[in-house]
Amino acid sequence: MNVINPATGEQLDSYDEQTWSDVDSALERASEAFEEWRKQSIRERERLLETAGRVLRNNKNEYAEIITLEMGKPITQARAEVEKCAWVCDHYAEYGSTYLEDRHHPSPPGTTVKTVHQPLGPVLAVMPWNFPFWQVFRFAAPYLTAGNVGVLKHASNVPGCAIAIEDIFREAGYPEGVFQSLLVSSDLVADIIADDRIRAATLTGSGPAGRAVAAAAGEKIKKTVLELGGSDPFVVLDDADIESAAETGTQARNQNGGQSCIAAKRFVVHTEIYDKFIEALIDSFESLVVGDPTDENTDVGPQARVDLLTELHEQVEASIEAGATLVTGGEPLDREGAFYPPTILTDVPDGCPVDSEETFGPVAAVYEVADEREAITLANNTEFGLGASVWTADRERGEHVAKQIDAGCVYINQLVKSDPRVPFGGVGESGYGRELSEIGIKEFVNRKTVWIE
Ligand code: NDP
């Protein structure tokens, strides 16, 4: 596995890919570790998670540097990502046992009926490079606390992050085998899922990768949670605060170089305020500093890999060819590294790539709509259904619109974000299942009914 710094094109490091024999040993360790780990009290598991949070905070700068070097995230955003990982550790360290308390049910007199929550075993997590720490901690913090053990197959371009995360759990005092990183290609994933020692799987990533994982798990009747892509609408109604919507919309589209499943991708704007909004959005996009991700002042770093930049640019070019108007950006920067500028397209035709596909980079498709009804129709004109953002001065109107949008979450006057306290996940092509909160931690447990006569 060769690691290329996307800001410079230089090779940073090279790792030997692991073979099936390494995987076999890791699965054996996971299986053995689970038998002990499941017997630990949840209080003890919470205590270790709290320590993992401390390890993250104590070494924040070191981890942020690995993230920035491997996938190009601006350093300030990389530090924020590590902080957020510490937060999800704190959250489940505080609430894990409450979330997993036994639930009593109405039952005949003299009888006790309850649901208890018990771990499933080793869970495989196939994770992406875009938030290379957060995606993993979002998985590990709840599921390890529930008594499962974790086996991570991280994206091939971030092996340094995978190794650092395994080290964090070791340093925090987790027993050997409770969390392991495998450095393997995706070719081995189906065989790993098929192995009897793996009890469930989760993937965050693209649709094709999600389908492959779901098919392999389906073959063996194993539970999966899939968090796939999105093409989130950002709906700006006629009574919205335009400045605030444009400013937040800029952040929602461009943070992490636009490489986020919940980035605002399609801006749906009411005709009454369209001209003012687009002017503010262009100003805001053009004010962003694109460049060296290790520089504290950089807003947008490189795309994580050259092939991803090429794919993004092809989507933009094909959309212009189909009739979209390029308003700003639109050409890779003429410099070393995979840099793409914040880009806005208007007059976006139905079905062109930026309209119908996920754009994983700083490219906004902007639409003008006549009224609220048309805004809702357009917002729902996608196979994805991850998040949506709605902007209006009228909170009731916002809620009314939110109920009509087909998505896993709708944020009113706020950008879509994941938060340890709140369930996160999508519908349609965006996947299924929920992560985070009480709902998330219960995805990978056996909700066992116990009837006591
Ligand atoms: P992938 O979905 O290919 O990669 C995500 C993870 O899945 C990686 O660990 C990858 O491993 C693994 N993977 C890939 N193919 C398979 C497979 N057939 N079976 C099992 N595991 C697999 O994303 P890419 O990096 O190629 O990015 C492509 C596009 O995917 C992006 O442009 C974006 O649209 C979307 N994406 C969405 C993300 C999200 O947060 N929802 C995150 C990342 C990408 P390996 O790296 O070894 O191939």
UniProtKB/TrEMBL annotation:
This is NAD-dependent succinate-semialdehyde dehydrogenase. Pfam families: Aldedh. PANTHER family: SUCCINATE SEMIALDEHYDE DEHYDROGENASE [NAD(P)+] SAD (PTHR43217). Belongs to the aldehyde dehydrogenase family. CDD domains: ALDH_SSADH1_GabD1. The lineage of its organism: Archaea, Methanobacteriati, Methanobacteriota, Stenosarchaea group, Halobacteria. InterPro entries: Ald_DH/histidinol_DH (IPR016161), Ald_DH_C (IPR016163), Ald_DH_N (IPR016162), Aldehyde_DH_dom (IPR015590), ALDH_GabD1-like (IPR044148), GABD/Sad-like (IPR047110). Keywords: NADP, Oxidoreductase. It comes from the Archaea. Residues 1-450 form the Aldehyde dehydrogenase domain. Gene3D superfamilies: Aldehyde Dehydrogenase, Chain A, domain 1 (3.40.605.10), Aldehyde Dehydrogenase, Chain A, domain 2 (3.40.309.10). The keyword NADP applies. It comes from Natronocalculus amylovorans. Signal peptide: none annotated. GO terms for molecular function: aldehyde dehydrogenase [NAD(P)+] activity; succinate-semialdehyde dehydrogenase (NAD+) activity. Coiled coil: none annotated.
